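Running this now, will post back.
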Amino acid sequence: MPFRFVTLSCAIVFVAGACTPKPELPAAADVVAARQAALEFEVRLKRDVLDRLERGDDPVAVYLAYRDQAPLLAREISARSGLEFSRVSLRPRNTSSAADDWEREQIESFQFWREAGIDPAVMDSAAVMVEGEGDGRTKVFRWMRPLAIDEPCMVCHGDAIDPRILKLLAQEYPLDEATGYYETEIAGGYSVSKALD
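Update: finished.
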């Protein structure tokens, strides 16, 4: 009798599991578009910062140019691609860049994978999710890629920031948490979303 009970229980669990709907997979075209948006942002902005550093521009001028250009470039990419493109962090400089729950999970996974020896350049995460409640529920494509600190980032996010930049940061972002990073540390991620309904 106990044997039959165990067998029946396993069969019920198996059938119930088979009836669970599988999550919808993101469209390949959306993933490619998200990757291209993040790559364009990263290449254009880092190239500009590196060019300024190589020319010997004052670090404050480099910070000010980056501060002004980054949001403009993000808006430009969003408008052209039809995607909502942003950068988010667990330790944001601007509180509007704080990661939401899904983004937090992805960043924590990226940090775990990096500690396991995986190169952040090959990481990304994509999902189709239902967001909102009641009649406001909508399907949304979500994608993230880690944002790892490298040399250009250290000017404003490292542990040896020019005191003049620190003074500006204290005035402009009194709740700034985005300093003290080391090279290769994952500081956050590029985040893309697109409503599908």
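Residues 24 and 128 are 6 Å apart (CA to CA). More later if anyone needs it.
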